[in-house]
Amino acid sequence: MQINRRNLAVSALAVGLLSALPAVAGSADEMAVARNLEAFRTAQIAADAKAFDALCAPELSYSHSDGRVEDKATFIANATAGKSKVLSLDYKDPTIRVVGTTAIVRFHWLGEAQSVADGKKTSTNLHILMNWQKQGDTWKLLSRGSTKL
Fold this sequence. Notes:
Number of strands: 6
Distance between the termini: 47 Å
Number of domains: 1
Helix content: 25-40%
Number of helices: 4
CATH architecture: Roll
Shape: globular
Largest sheet: 6 strands, mixed
CATH topology: Nuclear Transport Factor 2, Chain: A
Radius of gyration: 17 Å
Structural class: alpha+beta
Order of helices and strands: HHHEEHEEEE
Strand order of the largest sheet: 2-1-6-5-4-3
């Protein structure tokens, strides 16, 4: 096979996408949770209310590192309000453990955002714990907690 720029770009993109997903042992449920985790990260970057609505359980309890706790409606409203823009967001070293209809997900969050009002940039370095619940045949985010590092 002859390597050209297009083949190289496609290969680089594929490697990048695969490396964004956590190293998972490979069960179908673990892979489904991994896909939802990446979809959630992407929704955070895009401030995508429709994606959040699809990914989050109606009973969502979303805890921030400053102690605020939000239900699903409040989380989505605040995450998509347009007060800040995500410049970068990385979920480092994710682990997924499926126990029955529950998945325990942990990762190291590294992010940078910029305030729309004043342009001020802030960095976040957190440890995240998410609990995903299988509802029917779909995994939904049930709860999330974070701790500043």
